[in-house]
């Protein structure tokens, strides 16, 4: 069944891949978090085949979990990409590693945390859970995302505008004094 003369049949794309919407959540609470987030966004912008569309304002948020630590600075990046989810995850982890990210303590302090929230409408694949399994419960993801993508949705969970109503947003404070510049190319 055809919806129009310009339908794309992914089986006929050859080596081309369809463009998918990508949502990434970034956070930091060790070191100069604002500078780290700016550099991380710059590295994402330099990633081949990952085109930044928008970067949210920065929010200060309370840490999740019981480990005593400083508040986080968080933001969300919306991009478009032809990359496979595992390639995006590999790039995110390489950027984290560049900033000395360690993974010894779950929910512990971090120089940089980059979560792949979603890649198109894809559902979990080998070695990556999509959409991110807890994104729909996290105010530090939903609130910044809503700022730049008010019609966004998380597959299987619904519109982020509705999901924000179901989470505790106390302690999620927009930081007007911190501006992350995005080289979106748009």
- Count of discrete alpha- or pi-helical segments spanning 4 or more residues: 4
Got a strand count? 8
Q: Radius of gyration from the CA trace?
A: 17 Å
The fourth-level CATH homologous superfamily of the domain at 19-133 and 170-174 is 7,8-Dihydro-6-hydroxymethylpterin-pyrophosphokinase HPPK
Pfam families: HPPK
GO molecular function, one term: 2-amino-4-hydroxy-6-hydroxymethyldihydropteridine diphosphokinase activity
Catalytic activity: 6-hydroxymethyl-7,8-dihydropterin + ATP = (7,8-dihydropterin-6-yl)methyl diphosphate + AMP + H(+)
Protein name: 2-amino-4-hydroxy-6-hydroxymethyldihydropteridine diphosphokinase
Describe the 3D structure.
The radius of gyration is 17 Å and the shape is globular. The model has no long low-confidence stretch (mean pLDDT 89). It is 23% helix and 22% strand. The N and C termini lie far apart (34 Å). It has a domain at 19-133 and 170-174: 7,8-Dihydro-6-hydroxymethylpterin-pyrophosphokinase HPPK (Alpha-Beta Plaits). The chain is α+β, with helices and mostly antiparallel strands and 186 residues long. The chain has four helices and eight strands. One of its GO terms (biological process) is tetrahydrofolate biosynthetic process. Keywords: ATP-binding, Folate biosynthesis, Kinase, Nucleotide-binding, Transferase.
Topology:
Layout: E1 20-28, H1 33-45, E2 50-55, E3 59-61, E4 72-81, H2 85-98, E5 113-119, H3 139-148, E6 153-154, E7 158-159, H4 160-164, E8 173-174
Antiparallel strand pairs: 1-4, 1-5, 2-4, 3-4, 3-8, 6-7
Properties at a glance:
about 190 residues, alpha+beta, Alpha-Beta Plaits, six-stranded antiparallel β-sheet, two-stranded antiparallel sheet, 4 helices, 8 strands, about 20% strand, globular
């Amino acid at each position: 069944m055809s919806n129009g003369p310009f339908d794309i049949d992914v089986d006929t794309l050859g080596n081309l891949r369809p463009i998918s919407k990508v949502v990434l959540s970034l956070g930091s609470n060790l070191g100069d978090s604002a500078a780290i987030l700016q550099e991380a966004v710059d590295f994402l912008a330099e990633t081949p085949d990952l085109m930044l569309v928008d970067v949210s304002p920065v929010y200060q948020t309370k840490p999740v979990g019981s480990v005593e630590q400083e508040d986080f600075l968080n933001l969300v990046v919306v991009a478009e990409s032809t990359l496979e989810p595992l390639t995006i995850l590999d790039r995110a982890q390489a950027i984290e590693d560049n900033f000395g990210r360690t993974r010894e303590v779950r929910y512990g302090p971090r120089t940089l945390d980059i979560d792949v929230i979603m890649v198109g409408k894809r559902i979990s694949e080998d070695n990556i859970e999509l959409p991110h399994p807890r994104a729909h419960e996290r105010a530090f993801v939903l609130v910044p995302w809503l700022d730049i993508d008010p019609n966004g949705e998380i597959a299987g969970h619904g519109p982020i505008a509705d999901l924000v109503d179901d989470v505790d947003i106390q302690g999620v404070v927009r930081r007007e004094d911190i501006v992350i510049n995005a080289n979106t190319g748009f």
